[in-house]
TrEMBL record:
Protein name per UniProt: Uncharacterized protein
SUPFAM superfamilies, per database record: Metallo-dependent hydrolases (SSF51556)
Annotated InterPro entries: Metal_Hydrolase, TatD-like
Positions with a binding annotation for a divalent metal cation 2: 146, 169
A single MF term (Gene Ontology): metal ion binding
Length: 269
């Protein structure tokens, strides 16, 4: 086993979240002790881009930036569906850092009813995803994809756009829909919340290990509800995958890290 295989890659986390501002060094240290060798730090809006780039420079070869515009945006303390204007402001910054990033994300669709005022909102989300998929194709980067309450529409749109490299993070759809993504060669990352999610457990049963990556989505989707999640909890996800698949923890670590390095071709350990 090569040196690059002896550790975990957290393929999707929000390490730039203010939840980590006070004790980031400790959080990073604990994740290294738990065997994490790399974190893919995802953005939700352009206001985070510089912070993520700065963190990647502060922890070189450990934090890898992933910039993109999420389908749900925060505004004055409330959440709303993304608009094409949100993307307009982000594109120049994205372009500026194109040499530094390992993926475009977090992008995708979120059809949770409370965020959607009308069908126009769904169409705006699709357009924002389409345009970011074009950027990813142009830069030869994968997409790091959110698909809450929109598993099938997301996978169908990615197929329609000819996307070949995508990570579906914390996929909440049916295993049969996920398997359509597997046929496209997409990867699916599993968070520690699998220990309390029947849906994620069913998903892992059906997914081939060759299409599974690990993530924490820190500070969300931890082993316990309402408790801050951290990258060190990647072990919880790995151990559960190993149990469900009936393979050793070592095998899960090796395969998921191999999958992540194949997907994020700019991620160098």
């Amino acid at each position: 086993m090569g040196a690059s295989m002896s550790g975990y890659i957290d393929c999707h986390c929000h390490i730039s979240s203010e939840d980590f501002d006070k004790d980031l060094d400790e959080v990073i240290e604990n994740s290294r002790k738990a065997g994490v060798v790399a974190l893919v730090a995802v953005a939700e809006h352009s206001g985070e881009f510089e912070k993520i780039i700065n963190l990647s420079q502060r922890f070189p070869g450990f934090i890898f930036p992933c910039l993109g515009v999420h389908p749900v945006q925060q505004e004055k303390g409330t959440q709303r569906s993304v608009t094409t204007q949100d993307l307009q402001g982000a594109l120049p910054i994205l372009h500026k850092y194109r040499e530094h990033i390992v993926a475009i994300g977090e992008v995708g669709l979120d059809f949770t009813p409370r965020f959607l005022v009308s069908d126009e909102d769904k169409e705006a989300q699709r357009e924002v995803l389409r345009r970011q998929a074009e950027v990813a194709k142009h830069l030869d980067l994968p997409l790091n994809v959110h698909s809450r309450s929109a598993g099938r529409p997301t996978i169908h749109l990615l197929k329609e756009l000819g996307v070949q490299k995508a990570l579906l993070h914390a996929f909440d759809g049916k295993p049969s829909v996920a398997l359509e993504g597997v046929r496209q060669g997409f990867m699916f990352s599993i968070p520690p919340s699998i220990i309390r999610s029947d849906q994620k457990q069913r998903l892992v049963k059906q997914l081939p290990l060759e299409n599974i990556c690990l993530e924490t989505d820190s500070p969300a989707l931890g082993p316990e509800k309402q408790v801050r999640n951290e990258p060190q909890n990647i072990c919880v996800a790995a151990e559960f995958v190993s149990k469900v698949k009936g393979v050793s923890l070592e095998r899960v670590m090796e395969q998921t890290t191999h999958n992540a390095l194949k997907l994020f071709n700019n991620l160098r350990l």
